[in-house]
Design brief:
By secondary structure, the chain is mainly α. It is built from eight helices and no strands. The protein has helices at about 1-5, 25-35, 40-55, 60-80, 85-105, 110-130, 135-160, 170-200.
Length: about 210
């Protein structure tokens, strides 16, 4: 049943599955945006779950790295520093994190932090571009950071629960597979969107 619930997002319309460039208005919008942005939600949960799978220092350092570099990416987005293929990178982050969870491997912590930091730059940039249009960008940023941190903690709690003795080992594997499938779907939609934009540069397609 849990596996089926994780696959339900595949049935949602594409605009609900990625950043749409919608305006942000303050703390509440920033706090709730990670929840309603499914790509960001899955990435945050995955980072928390993966850190719990690895255990030890990774339990706090991996999520902390993500939040820190997400801030850097957000600042770069606010300053107008261009990033290329942001939506594709975000989709790849969901796909890769899902595969890492499904593999149940304990990756080198430095490699994990570097990968998480790289993806966090793109997640932050996508939202940083939106912040200057907000009524209160500072409150939006604070809300977004708090919302992201809480999702990380939820992922850590899920990962901790699933890795306890006598818990079914297949739970996290199937959860990781489901997340990776959603990431693959995001990637397909992002790639198709870029092809459509290239084919119709003056059309009504927006990102």
């Amino acid at each position: 049943m849990k596996f089926i619930l994780l696959l339900l997002p595949l049935l949602l319309p594409t605009p609900l599955l990625a950043h749409t460039g919608s305006h942000a208005y303050g703390f509440t919008s920033g706090f709730t945006h990670p929840v309603f942005g499914l790509d960001h939600l899955l990435a945050m949960l995955s980072v928390g779950i993966l850190s719990a799978q690895m255990g030890g220092r990774a339990l706090w350092s991996v999520p902390l790295f993500f939040v820190g570099f997400m801030l850097v990416g957000g600042i770069l987005g606010m300053l107008g520093v261009p990033f290329f293929s942001v939506e594709i990178a975000i989709a790849v982050s969901v796909l890769v994190l899902g595969l890492c969870i499904a593999s149940s491997q304990k990756f080198p912590i430095l490699l994990t932090m570097a990968g998480v930091a790289f993806f966090a730059l793109f997640h932050g940039h996508a939202h940083g571009v939106e912040m200057p249009e907000a009524v209160n960008p500072t409150l939006y940023a604070l809300g977004f950071i708090l919302g992201t941190t809480l999702i990380h903690l939820l992922g850590v709690a899920l990962g901790w629960w699933a890795t306890r003795p006598h818990r079914p080992a297949f739970f996290l594997r199937w959860a990781g597979v489901a997340i990776a499938l959603v990431g693959a779907y995001f990637l397909t939609q992002s790639t198709l969107g870029r092809k459509e934009e290239a084919a119709f540069p003056v059309s009504s397609f927006t990102r």
